[in-house]
Every structure is written in structure tokens, then in C-alpha cells.
């Protein structure tokens, strides 16, 4: 081959060079978006959503294989939290005249890394990953999504993309409430009595499994038709809130060390009386007025009202010998790493109610809106997951 190349040059003719162009970077992608807040009819499919761009060195672009819906997607579709989220999107108000629309919903993602920023060393193209994207960023109901490397984790090896997509958002929400806010962990849970209100929802089913993985005694509250599922997940006692006065039923049981409240409403008026007094017992609720206050009162007054509310409630209950806390979803790749270990060890499994195709996103939203799901509503962006 070397001799042939020399002969061609010797003849005075340069070898022909085929022209090769770099593949053109995509500029648009299919997505489900909303252009205004409202009911299900605001969902719109487009093939012209702007392709995500890496703006910071620590970001990655993920090719989405599967996503799942959460109650926050329904709330955001209606405009819940718009004031606070828009402030987070543009805190210095630099984008004058621009809005958050078109807005892509969806927080959970399981997929494959396609591109990495220059500062990313932990991941490489081709890695199978999962993540929960914060609500102030464009969501996952798209062909591709951009995420911070700090929000991403390697997908559990034992799960398909469809299964993995059911866990990140609810897992991190429960992790925030139980571990980061509530102070529970593998070394201090053994023998503790844990009460989970709203145990059959996405956060509740994860919380039941996590507390059992950490050797706690779990009392779960749900409806009768969900009791078999919750028992299968490991709950020691299951209380049907429809079978009588829930407060009276729970008062017949020994007092609790920790309560996770996924229900809110009037529950906290009596639930804290079920805790052991002056023992460090803690009540954590995921139902808070923070975003609602900001939507109604504006940023400054909303934050002030929220601070006054949580401060007064914390002091009031502390004087009664129990701790009162609010918890929120917190994106965290390192926490997902720990959750993935629990999944791969068989201690936590996804709970899926129904799977839809990407063309059926409005139908999936209606399913979630109907309530009473036993597990997550998952959407396959790429079929055959």
C-alpha cells in the first residue's frame, strides 16, 4: 500500500480526497410543551422545540428514553409556583419581555448521555443515567434534555429505562424529607416507629421501602384497595383511612418517633399529638404554602408570610416537645447514587401503575389527574424499554 501511494505521487497527480463534512448539529427536536397555563388542552406536541445547549462546563445532554409524571407536573401545567420558578429562572430579570413559554413539563428521566460539558469527568457519552430535573428548568417530555452533572446518576443496573424513570423525583423527595430534613439514616432507624400518611402514592411507596430497608417499624395509612400493595412493600401495620375516624384509629397505637405527612390539610391539626413528647420525635410535611404564598402575594410578601408561618409553627410545637419541619424535593446526583445502590441490592423497587407511549402524553396526564393511581404513570419516549 505504501509503494502504491508513492507511485501516485511520483506521477505528479495527488490522490483524490473525498470531501467529508461534520454531521450537522440538530437545532430542533420533538417535545410536548405548553404555551399558557390551564387544563389538559394546553398540552401541544411540536417537532420544533429548540434543541438543548450546554451552557455550563458541568452540564450533560441526555437522550431521553423514558419519563414519568408527578403531581407537580399537573400543578405546573395549571400555573402553580410560576412566580417563584420564574424568579429562579431569571433572578436578575435580564431577559426583559421573555416568558417561560414554550415550557416543557416532566421532571423524571432515564436515558443515555449524548454529550458532556468540558468540566464533566464523571460521565461520558453512552452512559446509562437517571435524574430528576428541577422544576425551574425545561423538563423531560422531549427527545433530549440538558441537566447539571450534579443532578445525574448512573441508572440502577437491574432496571430498564421504563422502570428507572418511575423513581428519581419521588425518591429524592422522600430522601429529602426522611434523611436530610428528618435526620433519619441507616444507623438510627432500627426499632423506630414511623407513621407514613398517604403511603400509596409515589413518595409514600418509596418511603415505606426506604424505612423498611433501614429496619424501622412502619405504619402506613392508605385506602383499603391499596393495602395489599403497601403490605407487599413491607409495611408492618396498614390503616385504612376510609374505615372510620383515622385520628381515633391511630390513637389506639403506640406513639410514633417520626411522621411523614404526604396529605396535608387538616391532618397536622391532630397528627403531631401522635408523636412521643420530649424524645426528639419529628413531624415532616411535604405539603407547604411556600409557592402558593408567592403566587398570591408576590415574591417579597410571599417569602415573608412563609417565614412567619413556619417559624410560628416550629416554635409552637417545640414548646410541646416535638419538632415540626417542612421538606421539599431537592435534586441530587449523589443521593441518587445511594438510592441506586438500594435498588440494585433489591431493597427498593419501582411501583408502576401504567405505561404510555410518547404520543399519548395528554392521555397520561388525564390518568394522573384522575387520581387513585397505584404507582407511577410512565411514558416511553423511545418504545420497547
TrEMBL record:
<keyword id="KW-0809">Transit peptide</keyword>
<dbReference type="GO" id="GO:0016491">
    <property type="term" value="F:oxidoreductase activity"/>
</dbReference>
<dbReference type="Pfam" id="PF08240">
    <property type="entry name" value="ADH_N"/>
</dbReference>
<dbReference type="GO" id="GO:0007399">
    <property type="term" value="P:nervous system development"/>
</dbReference>
<dbReference type="GO" id="GO:0005741">
    <property type="term" value="C:mitochondrial outer membrane"/>
</dbReference>
<dbReference type="InterPro" id="IPR036291">
    <property type="entry name" value="NAD(P)-bd_dom_sf"/>
</dbReference>
<dbReference type="InterPro" id="IPR002364">
    <property type="entry name" value="Quin_OxRdtase/zeta-crystal_CS"/>
</dbReference>
<dbReference type="InterPro" id="IPR020843">
    <property type="entry name" value="ER"/>
</dbReference>
<keyword id="KW-0547">Nucleotide-binding</keyword>
<keyword id="KW-0496">Mitochondrion</keyword>
<keyword id="KW-0521">NADP</keyword>
<keyword id="KW-0007">Acetylation</keyword>
<dbReference type="GO" id="GO:0005759">
    <property type="term" value="C:mitochondrial matrix"/>
</dbReference>
<keyword id="KW-0831">Ubiquinone biosynthesis</keyword>
<dbReference type="InterPro" id="IPR011032">
    <property type="entry name" value="GroES-like_sf"/>
</dbReference>
<keyword id="KW-0524">Neurogenesis</keyword>
<comment type="similarity">
    <text>Belongs to the zinc-containing alcohol dehydrogenase family. Quinone oxidoreductase subfamily.</text>
</comment>
<keyword id="KW-0472">Membrane</keyword>
<comment type="pathway">
    <text>Cofactor biosynthesis; ubiquinone biosynthesis.</text>
</comment>
<feature type="domain" description="Enoyl reductase (ER)">
    <location>
        <begin position="38"/>
        <end position="379"/>
    </location>
</feature>
<dbReference type="Pfam" id="PF13602">
    <property type="entry name" value="ADH_zinc_N_2"/>
</dbReference>
<keyword id="KW-1000">Mitochondrion outer membrane</keyword>
<dbReference type="GO" id="GO:0008270">
    <property type="term" value="F:zinc ion binding"/>
</dbReference>
<dbReference type="GO" id="GO:0006744">
    <property type="term" value="P:ubiquinone biosynthetic process"/>
</dbReference>
<dbReference type="GO" id="GO:0000166">
    <property type="term" value="F:nucleotide binding"/>
</dbReference>
<keyword id="KW-0560">Oxidoreductase</keyword>
<dbReference type="InterPro" id="IPR050700">
    <property type="entry name" value="YIM1/Zinc_Alcohol_DH_Fams"/>
</dbReference>
<dbReference type="InterPro" id="IPR037397">
    <property type="entry name" value="RTN4IP1"/>
</dbReference>
<protein>
    <recommendedName>
        <fullName>NAD(P)H oxidoreductase RTN4IP1, mitochondrial</fullName>
    </recommendedName>
</protein>
<dbReference type="InterPro" id="IPR013154">
    <property type="entry name" value="ADH-like_N"/>
</dbReference>
